[in-house]
Design goal:
By secondary structure, the protein is α+β, with helices and mostly antiparallel strands. Helix content is 20%, strand content 23%.
Length: 133
Amino acid sequence: MTQAQTYYHGTKADLRVGDLIAPGRISNYGARRQARFVYLSATLDAAIWGGELAVGEGAGRIYIVEPTGALEDDPNLTDKRFPGNPTRSYRSAYPFRVVGEVASWEGHPPGQLARMRAHLEQLKRQGIEAIEE
């Protein structure tokens, strides 16, 4: 017997069980173009980063999601930028269905969060965009 993989999606959106997270929204990163993919992670830590760094008002949220179609490695966090897939991050051209929410989670320390935001701002100034091919 095998256990199903748990996937997480970090955001600031207020969603409910059964809602779909679909491509086509404005991206949280780079030039904030219309996103061709939606992203998830098999690690809670990567989803926490997503919730903390997402654009928008309110607190970050971490949802438990199930993909409705094929997944592929997220090229922003895998071999095109880092060896392997250490964050176990994936993307899909198909929606994810919200099946639950992580009610209690601990964010990154303020200094670490500030360094990550500064790093993302530096990438933006350098014109380095999210890979959306």
